[in-house]
What we know:
Elements (H helix, E strand, L loop, with lengths): L1 E7 L3 E7 L5 E8 L6 H18 L7 E8 L10 E4 L4 E4 L1 H6 L6 E5 H12 L7 E7 L3 E7 L2 E3 L30 H4 L1 H14 L4 H5 L9 H9 L3 H25 L3 E5 L7 H11 L12 E4 L6 H8 L3
Helix pairs in contact: 3-10, 5-8, 7-8, 8-9
Zinc ion binds next to loops.
Amino acid sequence: MVYIGIDLGGTNIAVGIVDENGQILCKGSTPTLLPRPYGPIIADIAKCSLETLERSGHTLDDVAAIGAGVPGILDPRTGIIPFCTNLGWHDVPFITELQKYIDKPVYVGNDATVAGLAESVAGVSAGAHSSVFLTLGTGVGGGIVIDGKAYSGAHGVGSEIGHMIIELDGEECTCGNYGCFERYASATAIIREGRKAYAQHPDSLIGQLCGGDPDKITAKTIFDAAKESDPTAVKVFRRYVRALAHGIVTIINVLDPEIIALGGGVSLAGDFLLQAVREAVKPLVFFKTMPYARIELAKLGPDAGIIGAAMLGK
Ligand SMILES: [Zn+2]
C-alpha cells in the first residue's frame, strides 16, 4: 500500500506518494495562491494528489490513507480545522471537503508534529521510542512522538513548544503572551538581537557581512560572523544558544525523550550550533549522573512535511 502526504504551506502545497517505510516514490506541487477561499485550495490539493498518484504508477486502490500537515491544528472532536492563521482559515471542514474528491481516510496534523513524525520514521529519530522535534525557523514549532505516534495532547492543542513561557514579562509574542520560547530561540530572535548588537557595535564583522544594511542581517550572518570569532556576533550567538538550551532542558525535565532533533532553517548552522547547544545543555540537566536525550540535527529537510503527513495514516 502507499500513502498520500500533503504539506500545506502558505505559498506552496507539496504532495508526495510515500511507501510504508516513509520513502517518497513521487512528488508534485501546486501554488496555494492566497488569499482565496479554502474550497478551491482543497480542490487543487485533490487534483495535484491524483496527478502525482498517476505519475507514481499507482491507483487509488493502492492508497491506504491521506495525511495532511497544516500550519494549524485539527479539533479531534469535530474533524474541523478551527484556525490556520497564515492561511486565513477559520472552521474549515478539511476532511469532508477533501473526501468529496478522494474517498479515503484523511488524517490531519500540525506541520511541526508531522515533521517530527517523519524524523521518527525515516530520519534521525528512526527506531527511537520517544522523540521531540524542534523546527527553528521564523517561529519555533514542536513535534512530540511517543511510541511511534505523534502526540498532540488530549484536546489537540499540545506540543506548542514554541509557546512555553521562559521569561516573565519578556518579548511580546505573536500569540499575545510575553516571553515565549520562540521569541528567543527562532531565527527571528537571532535577527532581532543581531540588529540590536550591530547598532551598538557598527565596527562588528556583522556590518561587513550585511554590506552595512541591517535589513540584510539573517541568522546566517550572525553564525558566519560568530564562526570568525567576531565578539559582537559571538555574544548574540551565545545568548541564542543559552535560550535554546533552556528550552531543551525544560523538554528533557518534562518528557525525558530519547532524542531531541533540531530542524528548520537555523539548524543549517550544523555542527557549529549542535556542539554549542550540547555543551550548554549539559550543566543544566537536573539528574546529572543519569543519561538524557541525545541532541541531534534533523535529517530529512523540507521532505519531512510530506513524509510525516503520509505517515499519519499508517
Ligand atoms: Zn507565544
